Amino acid sequence: MRNIKIIEVSSEIGAGTRGASLGIEAIKIAALDFMSNLFVNFPSEVVENENRLLYEPIASPYAKRIQGIFTMYERVSNAVSESIKSGLFPLVLAGDHSTAGATITGLKIARPKRRLGVVWIDAHADLHSPYTTPSGNMHGMPLSVVLAEDNVENQVHAPDQKTVEMWNKLKNIGKIQPKILPEDIVYIALRDFEKEEEALLKKYNIKVITVAELRKKGVESVVRQTFLHLSNCDDIYVSFDVDSLDNSISRGTGTPVSNGLKEREAEDLVASFMQHHKICCFEIAEVNPTLDKENLMAEIAFNILQRSVNLLLLN
């Protein structure tokens, strides 16, 4: 049985669309509607956010609000590492996906000598840097931060000195860089990425499991394949961005993409991962109820969460 701690990160300064900071409350409302006491049963920590920056002018167009992201990285990584050190399993509920890099940072700070694998269930690669970003939104950069990957071979922009300094500081939080290796990432449901990101996927031969492959082989087979690929890792972190779901059901997220996972596939997939002893942390991100009808996305996210927690309590 795992002792769980819920870490709430209602930050949305890394996103381009407003509203992801309301995702956690929307999931809690879904819990109430389903008469679940999930949020009563476990200790939780609310990480202070920097969302006031949304009202201020943007100083770094190629890494928007990077100063605030740095502050969030310090806070979130601290919350996650303290949780691990206390013997608690961090269940992270996040607004936008930018702070997932901070979760990874916290896991690495807590166990610097252990090799960390990452299962990234997401429509997007999140492998941009200030040198390649098409939008400047930092929820497209968390994996580059922890890989310490600038991707200058495919450089599009020349960020200003201050942005570069902040970016380098971000990569170096915890004085460990890189925090993960490219061969220790497995993408599932990836289907929307830019050519600069594709260049990195090819360069490092990063493992990608498509939705079509998951349907053909089945969830159990894909999960086995993932653990086999990450067999050299001591710990494995699972990050679930709700835009991995098909856009027919994932309206309540900032960047929906077609040809994604069905609700049941996503639920079964996460549940299969949660049964494994190497899983050290689970994160769910990018629920945006302002874009949704009848809180559907939050209800789906809650179902995934509830089933995961039930399995963590058994293992």
Would you kindly provide a written description of the structure presented here, covering whatever features stand out?
The protein is of the alpha/beta class and 315 residues long. It has one domain (4-314): Ureohydrolase domain (Arginase, Chain A). Helix content is 38%, strand content 14%. It contains eleven helices and eight strands. It has helices at 23-33, 38-41, 66-85, 100-110, 142-147, 161-171, 195-203, 211-217, 219-229, 263-274, 296-314; strands at 4-9, 44-47, 89-94, 116-121, 185-188, 207-209, 235-241, 279-285. It has an eight-stranded parallel sheet with strand order 2-1-3-8-7-4-5-6, with helices on both faces. Helix 3 packs parallel to helix 6 and helix 9 (219-229) crosses helix 10. The longest helix is centred in the first third of the chain and has 20 residues, at 66-85. The radius of gyration is 18 Å and the shape is globular. The mean pLDDT is 97.
In short:
This protein is an alpha/beta fold.
Strand content: 5-15%
Q: CATH class, please?
A: Alpha Beta
Count of domains:
1
Helix content: 25-40%
Structural class category: alpha/beta
CATH homologous superfamily caption? Ureohydrolase domain
Strands side by side in the biggest sheet: 2-1-3-8-7-4-5-6
**End-to-end CA span:** 5 Å
CATH fold title: Arginase, Chain A
The major sheet is characterized as: 8 strands, parallel
Integer average pLDDT = 97
Number of contiguous helices: 11
Level-2 CATH architecture? 3-Layer(aba) Sandwich
Order of helices and strands: EHHEHEHEHHEHEHHEHEH
Q: Rg, please?
A: 18 Å
Shape: globular
Q: Uncertain regions: pLDDT < 50 for 5+ in a row?
A: none
What's the β-strand tally?
8
